[in-house]
Write a structure and sequence with these properties.
The complex is a heterodimer of chains A (286) and B (279). Chain A is built from 14 helices and no strands. By secondary structure, chain A is mostly helical. Chain B is globular and about 65 Å long. The chains are: A mainly alpha (286), B mainly alpha (279).
């Protein structure tokens, strides 16, 4: 990033007053639109003091919600990473027909409402579909149960890893892997010693965004989980329950934990962008 | 490895494995569920489907979702362009912090954003109390839905436009100035047309996201039927009544809107690639 103001001539920037007004105006709006809600979460969580907030987090409902959210993310995020790597390998290392259409399909979940995603999963796996009937007969529960939550989480976070990896791997080409094979490496060896080190920062970046969304997903999980307290209530669902029961401190304390997670995610993301701008540059252009 | 008419030969291994994993997960997680939703629609039949969607409550919900998304995305289009310009072109204290914070709506769970905005704009909230003397009610009105959608859609335009501004050639602006154009004229006639494709892409992405948004909206909306009830909430209500056909009907209507917008995004991107070979 070139420092723009240094080589700016007076004719390629705005008058001083206009610049001041633009900076002041946008920063004021950012404070109201972005920072105020974030501060509100912590202010409401700590309304009755630290002790009340920590007590609320230690209650069984909150603890089981935190545990469930962690387990769901621990399954959904690695699965999406495997998918992302496989998709990026197939799409960037080979030429086949229908590739553009395939990429559109991978991006599809970004433009589908999370509630519609949950609905679609309920219709496929629910008890009144043919597949659902078979599942019930074999005592496999997906809807209103843990597997459904994982599937819903995977749906909404689907494109994250693949989208980060594909542009990076297109830019890096195929020559290095081909050289490794010529020198006698196996396909797996070429992947682990050549490809993976090249894409690791982009992979981490994608996993980071995927994880943030996975732990915070609400709409799709709300539909498919059935909201069975203590069993299928993830953190966002539990926040809604506490909030509707006027347990404000409990709701905002749990929300505060997720807000802290969001802040950690943003910090790591910014660090990655500053340190590895060269590798991630390909992604930011898309 | 054997190549076929569908695939050009490549010396690299693993096509079968990687393609297989990709298609298997894509099918189970995305394609089969979407197929089940569309299949349900076919079973109901277009006539009955239309009858189910054609009620005042559903039309109000669908138009509200679309209208609010449009308003919020238009705001974000203008604000996003200005913010991206300020972040790239000016140097000021706190710039990097704000640049990183722009992604907050991507990282903050929607339910958290929803209750936070409600706490701020409710009649007893900080902003709610400040706006009450002016006669402005935000929470539990359509205005509240706009605020929630502005929040979640904020990063899209900024993030699509920023890289384009970074790569702008300043000499073009100099030439424009040398030829006697005022700064405002240069911005409007030289800079803005270059940014337009990226800005439109960001706008379309924000719109697609906002139309289907649920978590951040339901807390602040008040959810009054025909007034502040969004379409995704109506799906949830129908599902809670175990009325799967009615839920599917609304879901299909929303899916068609999503497909239309996806098509629009792709067309914008093809158009912009032809125009400037970037984005």
């Amino acid at each position: 990033m070139a420092d723009a103001t240094i080589n700016a001539t007076p004719v390629t920037t705005e008058p001083r007053l206009a610049r001041g007004l633009l900076i002041g105006g946008t920063m004021a709006l950012i404070a109201v639109l972005l920072f105020a809600p974030l501060i509100a979460v912590f202010a409401e969580a700590l309304r009755d003091g630290w002790a009340a907030s920590l007590d609320a987090l230690a209650a069984p409902d909150a603890r089981s919600a935190i545990r469930l959210t962690l387990i769901v993310a621990a399954i959904a995020v690695p699965l999406n990473a495997v998918f992302g790597i496989a998709a990026a390998w197939a799409i960037t290392k080979f030429d086949f027909r229908g590739k553009a259409f395939l990429i559109t399909l991978i991006d599809l979940p970004f433009s589908v409402s999370p509630v519609v995603a949950g609905l679609a999963l309920v219709l496929l796996f629910g008890a009144n579909s043919s597949l659902g009937g078979w599942l019930v007969a074999h005592d496999l529960k997906i809807v209103f149960a843990f597997p459904g939550i994982v599937l819903a989480t995977m749906f909404v976070t689907f494109p994250f890893v693949a989208r980060e990896l594909i542009p990076v791997m297109i830019e890096q080409g195929r020559a290095e892997e081909e050289a490794a094979l010529t020198l006698g490496a196996s396909g797996w060896r070429a992947f682990f010693t050549v490809t993976l080190p090249n894409i690791r920062w982009a992979l981490l970046y994608g996993v980071l965004l995927c994880n943030a969304r996975a732990m915070g997903e609400f709409g799709a999980v709300a539909v498919i989980s059935g909201k069975i307290r203590g069993e299928t209530t993830t953190m966002p669902i539990m926040i809604e329950m506490f909030y509707n029961e006027y347990l404000s401190v409990a709701a905002f304390s749990l929300a505060g934990v997720l807000a802290l997670l969001a802040l950690v995610t943003l910090t790591l993301k910014s660090l990655l962008e500053w340190r590895h701008a060269d590798v991630l540059a390909a992604t930011r252009r898309h | 490895m054997r190549a076929s008419i569908l695939r050009s030969p490549s010396p690299l291994p693993g096509f079968g494995l990687s393609f297989g994993i990709m298609v298997a997960i894509l099918s189970i997680v995305v394609l089969l569920p979407i197929g089940a939703l569309l299949g349900r629609g076919l079973m109901i039949g277009p006539g009955d489907l239309w009858d189910m969607v054609n009620s005042r409550r559903i039309w109000s919900a669908l138009t509200l979702s679309f209208r609010a998304a449009l308003v919020a995305s238009l705001f974000n289009l203008v604000f996003g362009l200005v913010l991206a310009w300020v972040l790239v072109r000016y140097r000021f204290w706190g710039r990097r912090l704000v640049d990183a914070a722009v992604d907050l709506p991507f990282a903050l769970p929607t339910a958290v954003a929803g209750i936070a905005l409600t706490a701020l704009y409710a009649p007893n909230g900080v902003f709610g109390q400040a706006l009450a003397p002016l006669g402005i009610k935000v929470a539990y009105t359509e205005l509240g839905i706009w605020m929630a959608l502005i929040f979640i859609g904020l990063p899209f335009v900024v993030r699509t436009v920023q890289p384009v501004i970074e790569e702008l050639d300043r000499e073009v602006e100099e030439v424009s100035a040398t030829l006697g154009a005022r700064r405002a004229y240069t911005l409007r006639r030289v800079v803005l047309p270059t940014l337009a494709p990226a800005a439109l892409t960001g706008f379309a992405l924000a719109l697609a996201r906002s139309v289907g948004e649920y978590g951040s909206v339901i807390f602040i909306a008040g959810n009054i039927p025909n007034l502040t009830e969004i379409a995704p909430l109506l799906i949830v209500i129908r599902l809670e009544e175990y009325n799967y056909d009615a839920a599917a009907a609304i879901g299909i209507a929303m899916l068609l809107i999503s497909f239309a917008m996806l098509l629009a995004i792709n067309l914008i991107q093809i158009w912009s690639r032809r125009r400037i070979g970037l984005v």
